């Protein structure tokens, strides 16, 4: 007689404990947190050509496979962003959001040199009053970000409509570049996590 083994229980990764719950009653992340996390990951995709595979590698190296189970699962979590064309009407739990924050900061550290180069290039262009096209790598990042944003966000949403011009999208991409740079420092996970809940907790 074959004896079936009980299914293995998923183990909560202890690395998630470094991010607090801030006394939030609901297990679901607010709309702003879901949107901002997806935007940040969109910026990473604009910097890293093989971002999808790199994210999966980061998940494995951080031991987060029990929370972020697969490529499809990761796509579904990002699609909880209500501004997406194919929005998944499902919650993004605090545990899942914590895992995404840890992955984001892990990848940002790997992209530190490139992020700093682009940020310094942007500052130099401003000082010299030159257009963004004068910095090839920065212009390439902005072009890729605009393409990703327009391909994935719902143009019928008022928030998305506010970014209908190249200029507005470039402003968003540059602000996200600054945020990526902040995600490379000490305690960056805690700072990014806290920023997602500005105005949500007292």
TrEMBL record:
On the tree of life, the source organism's domain of life is: Bacteria
Any idea what this protein is called? DUF3038 domain-containing protein
- Which organism is this entry from? Leptolyngbya cf. ectocarpi LEGE 11479
Its ancestry begins with: Bacteria, Bacillati, Cyanobacteriota, Cyanophyceae, Leptolyngbyales
């Amino acid at each position: 007689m074959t004896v079936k083994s009980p299914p293995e229980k998923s183990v909560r990764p202890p690395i998630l404990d470094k991010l607090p719950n801030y006394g939030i009653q609901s297990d679901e992340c607010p709309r702003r947190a879901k949107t901002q996390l997806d935007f940040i990951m969109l910026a990473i995709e604009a910097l890293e050509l093989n971002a999808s595979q790199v994210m999966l590698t980061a998940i494995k190296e951080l031991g987060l496979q029990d929370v972020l189970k697969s490529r499809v699962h990761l796509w579904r979590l990002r699609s909880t962003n209500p501004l997406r064309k194919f929005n998944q009407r499902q919650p993004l739990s605090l545990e899942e959001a914590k895992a995404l924050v840890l992955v984001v900061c892990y990848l940002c550290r790997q992209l530190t040199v490139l992020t700093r180069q682009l940020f310094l290039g942007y500052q130099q262009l401003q000082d010299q009053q030159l257009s963004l096209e004068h910095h090839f790598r920065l212009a390439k990042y902005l072009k890729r970000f605009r393409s990703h944003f327009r391909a994935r966000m719902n143009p019928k949403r008022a928030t998305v409509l506010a970014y209908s011009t190249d200029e507005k999208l470039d402003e968003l991409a540059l602000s996200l570049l600054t945020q990526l740079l902040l995600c490379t420092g000490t305690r960056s996970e805690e700072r990014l996590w806290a920023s997602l809940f500005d105005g949500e907790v007292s």
